[in-house]
Design goal:
Largest sheet: 6 strands, mixed
Order of helices and strands: HHEEHEEEEH
CATH architecture: Roll
Number of helices: 4
Number of strands: 6
Shape: globular
Distance between the termini: 39 Å
CATH class: Alpha Beta
Radius of gyration: 15 Å
Helix content: 25-40%
Strand order of the largest sheet: 2-1-6-5-4-3
Number of domains: 1
Structural class: alpha+beta
């Protein structure tokens, strides 16, 4: 679990070199909430390019692990990210609005490094908070 905490802390702090150091060379990230073309990111460079595009959109954010469990070569955790979108995210313009996003993440470890990540979050709630989608009807 220490390697997962280290990878999370490095990514959250913007320490891209430290983050890359804990990823396996064959690293893959899976996330169905992303647009096509970003749902499967293969290799450390592809994933870091994505993160380096996201960071300017939300330069000041907090990302806190709230729960963590481990079994075998997998570690699952829940994190809560809070921030303000001050820059564009792809085609979505900056809104200056706050968001709170709960991520559910599973990471597979291989030889002491993170080899694979599955991420899930409520993209509709995220985009609604930012004003890119109308709020859900209750």
């Amino acid at each position: 679990m220490a390697i997962v905490r280290a990878s999370h802390a490095a990514l959250a702090s913007g320490d891209f070199d430290g983050f890359k150091a804990v990823l396996a060379p064959n690293y893959v990230r899976h996330c169905q909430a992303m647009p096509p073309g970003f749902q499967e990111l293969e290799g450390t460079d592809e994933f870091l390019a994505f993160i380096q595009e996201f960071k300017p959109a939300v330069p000041e954010y907090e990302d806190t692990i709230t729960q963590m469990i481990a079994q075998g070569d997998k570690v699952a955790y829940v994190s809560t990210m809070k921030g303000i979108q001050t820059g564009p995210m792809g085609d979505l313009p900056a809104t200056g609005r706050e968001f709170t996003l709960v991520d559910i993440i599973i990471q597979r470890l291989e030889d002491g490094k993170v080899a694979e990540t599955w991420v899930s979050w409520d993209n509709v709630a995220f985009l609604s908070q930012l004003g890119h989608l109308p709020p859900p009807v209750s």
